[in-house]
Structures are given as C-alpha cells and as structure tokens.
Amino acid sequence: MQCLNVIKLLLCTAILNQCFAFFNEPQKNEPDECFCQLQGKIDECSCNIDTVDSFNNVKIYPRLQSLLVKDYFRFFKVNLKRPCPFWSDDSRCAMRFCHVEYCEETAVPAGLKGNSGASNHNKYIDSAEEDCHEHHNLGYLNKTLSEKAQHDMERWAAHDDAQENFCVEDDQGEDAEYVDLLLNPERFTGYAGDSAHRIWHTIYLENCFRPKKSFSFNPYIQTAMLNNMCLEERAFYRAVSGLHASINIHLSANYLLSNKNGISLKNPKGEWGLNLEEFRKRFSPEFTNGEGPNWLRNLYFVYLIELRAIAKAAPYLERENYYTGNDSEDYDTKMAIKDLLSVIQKFSDHFDETSMFRGTKEAEKLKYEFRQHFRNITRIMDCVGCDKCRLWGKLQTQGLGTALKILFSGQFDYDVAGNLVNRKEMQLSRNEIVSLLNAIGRLSTSIYKLDDFRQMLR
After folding, report:
1. End-to-end Cα separation, the chain, in angstroms
2. Given pLDDT bands bounded at 50, 70 and 90, which one contains residue 392?
3. Phi, psi of 41, rounded to the nearest 5 degrees
C-alpha cells in the first residue's frame, strides 16, 4: 500500500512538472496569433480600434465597394511617364504584365473629358452693342484685356491656388492619360529589392520629421521615440506609416497564390488571394523588430484623417454633379455619395484637426514644412519602377494630400449653416475628388482585409 502511494506521488509530480514546463516555455506561435488583434484607443484620436472596425466593415466598406465602380470614380487621369527627379532608375518589376493598361479614347465617358479649350470670353469686355464713338469719350475706361494678359492672370491664379496644395499637379500635359482602375487592380507584382526599398527609405529618412536627437539610419522611427516630437510631426509620421501599412496589406491580400501549369509571376492569370506568410513577413513582431503592430495601428490613424476630411468637405461634395454624360448613372452616383456622406457625418469620433497648427508664427512655419514634405513625397512616386505600383502610389498619395488640403489649407471652413466662411470659394478638381474617394476606399479595404488575416491566424 505504501509503495502504491509513492508511485501515485511520483506520477503526480511528473505531470505537474510537465505542466509547469509547458506553461513557462515561450510559445513560438503566440505572437502570430495576437499581433494583429489590436485593441484600445487610436493614438492622437478619441475612438477605439474596435469601434472603427465595426463602423468600417459594416457601414463604410460595402458602400465604397459599390460607389467606386461607377464611371466617375473608375477613370483616373495620371502622368506615368514623368522621369524621377531625384535619381536615375531603370528598375523593372518581376511580373511581365504589370504594366498599366490605358483607356482607349472612346472608352472614357465624354463628360469626364470636359472642355478641351478654355473660353476666350472675358467678363470685363464691354458689350458688343457699345457705339464705337464712345471710345473717344474723355471718361472712357478700356476694360479689355489682351489674350496674353488673360493667360498670365490665369497662371498667377493657378500658382496661388497651388501653394495651398499638398500634391504636385499630375493630371495636366500631353503625357497625362486616363487609366481604368478596374482594369488595373492594386496587387502584388514582385516589385521589390533595392529600388523599392529606396523609395520608402527616402520617404522616411529625408521627408518625415524625426526626433531631434535621433542619429539612426533606420528609416522607421521607434514608437517610443515619437514622444520626443510635437503633435504635428507625430501626425505626419503616423499618416505616412499608416499609408505604407495599407499598401502592404493590399499586396498581401491580393497575392498570386497558384503556380499550376507554369503559372507564376511571369503570367498573372491565376488564383489571387490572401497570403498569410507574406502578411507575417511585413507585420509580425518577429520580422519587424517589434514595430509591426504599431504600423497597423497607424493604418487606423490615417483612415480617421481621411474620413474627417470627407466629412468636412461634405457640403461641397454634396453639391458636385459627378457628371459623365450618362444621366442615369450620374444620378445613381450622386445618391450613393449622399448616402455615404450621411453615414460618415453621423460618426462621432472623427480626427480633430483643430488641435494642430494653432496660432503662432512657429505653427505657420511648421505647416509650410508639413506641406513641402508631403509634396516631396508625391514627387518621389515618379521614381517607382513598376507602372502599376506607381499608379496606385500616385493615386493614394494624392488622395491623402487632398485630405490634408481640406483639413489644413484654410479654404474649407464652414459655419453651422453649412456656408463657406473662408476667404475664397473652395475648389477641388475632379482628379482630387476621385483620388480622395479611392484613397479612403483603399484604407477601408485594408481594415476589412485585416479582419480576414485575423481569422486566418486564429
């Protein structure tokens, strides 16, 4: 009997030791199971991540998916032939068919092309019915302007307006062409290596604000160091980081999976979908020095920036006609926009832009630097070596730049009645509207796909 009790005691001790060893041993899979399960408050904002997840995935994402296939939003005018202004680059992406398919002239809705030439009419020209002899009157005031003077004034006005923009104009000139975004989806092209890394290194190291005491050549700022920067500088970094995270999610979520019958990156006709391993490489703490989850949090930050910009510009966007020449679709597009705007305006926790650039001359100087840094980033997009990557990089940086223009240029302030109270009428070009809505569509898709990756990791 005593021997039996000893055996039981030894067995229990062995089992307890095994349990102790199991629960104290580092679990290699544990980080992968939770690193993208984000919780808590979004940095610099007042709402929580789970609130945004629910709001986006249930209300915003489905509406944007049906809106962005409309003709007004699917055709984007862009110049993809502009040379890189910073370095010589002849890189090529790995996929043979990653070039952009341009639209035939007949495929672009007539209403999007607009007037090919500016009107020569001048509101200051005297009436044609005026008698010629009046020109010799002592009190005659010649109000006509020469064609050159009119052209110069238009250039001056365009220059003044451009000073408020956060992007370099990209839809003018002979090399600007319409692209059908539905025929050129954003997805993994194999564009990688030194050329791709140089793009983001240049953006982070030379065009993002950095802590004053930082001498690191690591392009990514450690999250703990952000507290050494002012609010505006932190916001700039988080916006760029969030955009970068969003693009990486797109590439991981729309990845060529099949390799059957010789299908590879040389032939994109295959099965495209979520690549969990690619997602882990881009965001797991194991591969990102612990920063991946913070980059994913920044996705929510830039989403709230663009959402707030759309809410602020809502009175203007509601008045836009969204004209393509197809009356039925134009009406449907306008109604879809009104529905989307009504949902966005009901969201209570928008980003608060009024906390930034407040009052002082230093604040104005910082706003100027903020704008110039971002304009530089839009120019770096001309250095992307893959056409499709360049297309989507240009569209998304212009969309974010349009959001920053709405929030910080001072042109887009309204009173409680919805009337403009600024010094001049607000203006958004068609390309700015298209890029703004497509950019929030890309961020919305990233948040939606992030939930798919969570499910796979579980």
Report:
1. 48
2. very high
3. -75, 145
